[in-house]
Design a protein that fits this description.
172 residues; alpha+beta; Immunoglobulin-like; four-stranded mixed sheet; 3 helices
Length: 172
């Protein structure tokens, strides 16, 4: 396979994966938007609430106490992945990146919402944080730690490597 063919193949695979993810995420966004606006008495009330959400400074206000972060992460799966044929799982975390500041108290609330009742999932971070939440079907668990080391730390599912990973970014 020559370089041009290999490049075209790589671009095509990337576009296919990107479009697949969009088809999975887009319907969920439409449903969430509808659910948020369903209880509004009018479109004007919805617009008022949206403009109030940013406050007078034009910035989105923090929803957590300074120095504390509560993160909700769910198991997710890319639809129509032929796991048996590809020999790789289609599982991923709903949140691929967690950002915290050094010194923050971080609480991770992890939920196994996989449809397969025999699937286990974990939310694991190695040193220096040593977090390990291991869940069976329909379970949830929490872990709290202080982000006292700056850098990038990988979190992963022990059962679905190499695809089910994310990054904890701790800023100075």
């Amino acid at each position: 396979m020559n370089t041009t063919t290999r490049l075209m193949f790589t671009v095509l695979v990337g576009l296919t994966i990107g479009l697949s993810i969009l088809t999975v995420v887009t319907p969920k966004l439409i449903i969430q938007t509808y659910a948020q606006n369903e209880n509004k008495t009018s479109e004007k009330a919805g617009m008022t609430n949206m403009s109030n959400a940013t406050g007078t400074s034009g910035k989105i206000p923090s929803m957590s106490t300074p120095g504390e972060k509560t993160i909700y992460i769910f198991t997710s799966e890319i639809a129509n992945v032929a796991e048996d044929k590809l020999k790789i799982a289609g599982d991923y975390y709903s949140l691929p990146t967690i950002i915290a500041n050094k010194g923050d108290k971080v609480t991770v609330k992890f939920y196994n919402v996989d449809d397969v009742q025999t699937e286990r999932h974990s939310f694991t971070i190695g040193d220096p944080y040593k977090v390990d939440i291991d869940l069976g079907f329909g379970q949830n668990g929490n872990a709290t730690f202080t982000a006292d080391h700056t850098g990038v730390f990988t979190y992963y599912c022990r059962y679905h490597l190499p695809v089910m990973t994310g990054q904890l970014l701790v800023l100075p």
